[in-house]
Amino acid sequence: QVQLAESGGGLVQAGGSLRLSCAASASILMFNRMGWYRQAPGYLRELVATITSDGTPTYADSVKGRFTISRDNAKNTVYLQMNSLKPEDTAVYYCYAHIYWGQGTQVTVSS
Q1: Backbone torsions φ then ψ of 87, nearest 5 degrees
Q2: Whole-angstrom distance, CA of residue 90 vs CA of residue 100
Q3: Degrees to nearest 5, angle at CA 73 with 78 and 30
Q4: Strands 33-39, 91-97: parallel, antiparallel or unpaired by DSSP?
Q5: Cβ atoms of 37 and 93 closer than 8 Å
Q6: Could you give the dihedral angle defined by the CA atoms of residues 96, 105, 77 and 47, in that order, rounded to the nearest 10 degrees?
Q7: pLDDT tens digits, the chain, 111 residues: what are they?
Q8: Is the dihedral of CA 99, 74, 51, 93 positive or negative?
Q9: Rounded distance, CA 17 to CA 74, Å?
Q10: Least C-beta-crowded within 10 Å: which of 48, 61, 89, 106?
């Protein structure tokens, strides 16, 4: 069993930045891919970004150029740097790896 713990969410004004962290309880080297989903009220969970074990990222079109995913294998942590935030980025952000999910962290962007 692997636990994933997200942190870094909060309230920010439009145009601001936040950095989310996802700390794993075990080595993340075992995961070929990790990433972030988000879910806004009344909407389905959507994929935001992923990163492979060799560091190759992918992004949803809605966040390309604004969000950056990265990983620190030594710290067993994946990050999501979010810049130029928009109100439509408001959601609960979840970290995932294989079958494991974190509890989520709330991101609220005010206009």
Answers
A1: -55, -30
A2: 23
A3: 95
A4: antiparallel
A5: yes
A6: 40
A7: 999 999 999 999 999 999 999 999 999 999 999 999 999 999 999 999 999 999 999 999 999 999 999 999 999 999 999 999 999 999 999 999 999 999 999 999 999
A8: positive
A9: 25
A10: 61
